[in-house]
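Quick one, T. Sequence first:
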Amino acid sequence: SNFVLGNAQVPSAFPVVYCSDGFCDLTGFSRAEVMQRCCACSFLYGPDTSELLRQQLRRALDEHRAFKGELILYRKSGVPFWCLLDVVPIKNEKDEVALFLVSHKDITSTKSCSGTDSTKDTGRRRRFNRAGGKGFNASRRRSRAVLYHLSGHLQKQRKSKHKLRKGIFGDKPSLPEYKVAAIRKPPLILLHYGAFKAGWDGLILLATLYVAVTVPYSVCVGASTEQGLPAARGPPSACDLCVEILFMLGKAPPHPPCPMLAEAWGTRCTDGCPPFPPDIVLNFRTTFVSKSGQVVLEPRAVARHYLAGWFPLDLVAALPFDLLAACQVNVYVGAHLLKTVRLLRLLRLLPNLDRYSQYSAVVLALLMVVFALLAHWVACGWFFLGQREVEGSPAALPEIGWLQELARRLETPYYLARRNCSAGGAGNGTGPGANCSGSGGLLGGPSLRSAYVTSLYFALSSLTSVGFGNVSANTDTEKIFSICTMLVGALMHAVVFGNVTAIIQRLYARRFLYHSRTRDLRDYIRIHRIPRPLKRRILEYFQSTWAANNGIDTAELLQSLPEELRADIALHLHKELLQLPLFGGASRGCLRTLSLGVRPAFCTPGELLIRRGDALQALYFLRSGSMEVLRDGTVLAILGKGDLIGCDLGGPRRARADVRGLTYCALQSLGLPALAEGLALDPDFARAFRRQLPRELSYDL
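Structure tokens:
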């Protein structure tokens, strides 16, 4: 974390373009004192610094090669320390050395153990390290974030006429590179927005809809056989087996924690345990978006997120009911009720369907699918209820249930098959009124196809209206079920069908506004014939800023609030900028005035925030991302999170260099007119601010 970056494209000078917080803590120099000085750090030399190592370091910089050595350097306070100096050239996409990474490691304690340094300075250094441990950790994180954007995360790009370029996971170059940042995806990790994951989610959607249709039918309709007994189900179909392969587990693993963590973190299980089903394995390796809006790529974090979320439900839904039936294992109706747990997977599909919610036709189609699915479930329940009424009717079989009424109309009546029947009453026990034991069977009646079609007709007529009476409820149980169905149908009318337009406008108003703005932008670009590169920049900036603020105009939103409340909100939103040491002596009234003048800003990779020669109108605080300061194509400075750029209030107000984004950058800008207004409220702070500003600027433009 103790390093500086030097510009290798400025011969002899090799100026420092970035200085880490760790280097400032190690040497005692501020960032403003280090910037633009030679990256050889000759200002750290002293009487005991080896002249030979100085010359070797200088030759290494001139020849653009690596260097490593141990030498004595001096802090700003004059205290010497042993330093392990490491110089690494950083190449760009043109295979040219663009930067020098010069890292410094304090090895005083190591040298002290061998008697080469004083114990007094060693003790002072250790006490300093213990006191500033937390600050060092924070500075290391900030410095490494900038260094990550600049080195070691992109492949060297070489073109050859006779060889194809190696894959993205091929051999890495020996030297890091310097270019605009790109996302580096770990191996065997799927992006949640990738094409493969989208296709897989579509397949899982079809499988889940298939389960939503077949499971209620299997439980309510398919459970009965021609004899009316709850016997084992028949062999599953090919579609059932395919869906089982997507959801199922082969068998229970002998050590449950082992395979779970092994598959979750990409390791192999050594005890011969079976693998998880494909869907669970892919979910263990699929990225997600955290609450802070960042895409999480780290495998362990992805696995923990899935284990704490949908994994228990997916595990229960993976029980292999149909494969047990295919293996001639008797699975009774009660066990198949557990398959209804798979219907809860429909809740998981709702976020995936959100991407299509901006299209009105898709929304209407989804509503119709939901309505048809509900009608199917009601039909299965209506058939199940009628079947139970027939099986529970007396021996005389009075025709009161809807299935018995349907059988009478179709002239396919029910009758009993006698088993071990004893005579009852005056009869001889052979007629329809015989008193039959529970071992008897129920035969006859309408076909399964006719019964289901009639059930579906009743469900749709009850959900869309009050029914037509040709299929009516006769028993008390059937009447209660019909009442519930009519209430659900009335709710569907009132909430869905009667207010489709209102629902779409209420739920997707922000998306409609986004597409309206996008159409306006495209029409503007087309009318004024804006060239393609500028068009791309306009659309990219619009999409990036919309993703950051969701199209909310903060100024317009807060305009109706009183100024006192707006100042408190602004003070909270911009506290990261106003908590800098530069504003430490300001009164609360001054800070509230300054906070009202802070505006958010956003910069995309390759976009210019400030152009050379422009009038400087604000101070910019970099909240996230990395930027570079350029002059005639030469890198003058590299800026990271927490850097402040601008100009001295008493100096010229025109920029001497360009400021360009390397990554997506979020900034806060404090306008100079608003700054002057705030400083006028506190003259003592204004004088201290003007004295301290040149030292606090990461780069003076």
